[in-house]
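Sequence only, no structure available. Ideas?
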Amino acid sequence: MAANPPKGRDGQAARPIIIRRKKVIAGGHHGGAWKVAYADFVTAMMAFFLVMWLVATADPQKRAAIFDYFKNPSMQDGDSPKPAPGQNGPGGASNSAINLGGAMEAPRSGPDMKPMIGEVMEDLEAAQRQETPEETRARKLAEAKEKVQLDDLHQELRTAIDESHALKDFKEQLLLDITPEGLRIQVIDAQNRPMFDLGSTLLKDYTTRILRELGPYLNSVPNRISISGHTDNTPYGDGRPNSYSNWELSADRGNAARRALVSGGLSEDKIARVVGVSSAILFDEENPRNPVNRRISIIVMTKRAEQAAMQGYERKQPAIAPPKAAPPVAAPRPAGVTRSATP
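Reply:
I predicted one. Tokens follow.
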């Protein structure tokens, strides 16, 4: 006989107990969209480095052709003043993918190649000057040659400063650098070795020796020279408006440096200008009275800087017409003599 089932408090049969166990399943992946994006990124990077490698290994002619093509790759008729090699009119694209007959690159000198933005600005300046391609190429060749000459002069001066007995002791007072205007040589003052007496335009003996040593080197290049005198911010004189000030002092010191350079062998016609700028251009802006602010700046100017500096001085003067000759005055006839009507 079967056992009686358990009963509840109310006498009814108890319900069976059912135990439910949930099966825990590990979470799945969250999708593969990131893999697609990562694959696209890797593909783009691979294409980028492949293009960079191809550009680096291409010869100058191919690089120039690629550059010319991407100036205007559209198939629309253009209106550029420079004709395109294709058949779509001036400024239009070429009729081939890349025309290998494009313009050759301008010669480069050394590893210091100008960035693309510099080349674009040069092209705009050439267009403003209305230069022909041949004139632009000749100008760039001359500028490249000039840069090589200034670099050579820079190296010669550095070598001379290290080896010359007259300049070696003043190595700390000679600063050389290349600026957009040309090679700049700065002879700075020192606390214990000033170039001039205080408030004076008379050069010290060793300053004269430095400038005379620099003269032959500056005379070895065809470029002209610009000389600037600088002072510190210490007021000179009594400060009255019409009195002798740092402006006159800096100009006179620049002129004293000019005389020392000429006595050392620099040709007079190599000097383009001598200016005094007082304390307007400080070497140490944080300490305006620092002795290094008292200096002589000599710039071996590039042709472009020379033309910009002399532009206001070499304008053609209006021609002055010679005075008209006075009409000849007839000699007075003697009294009683009449002119005959027949010869």
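Strands lie at 174-179, 182-188, 225-230, 271-276, 295-301.
Hope that gets you unstuck.
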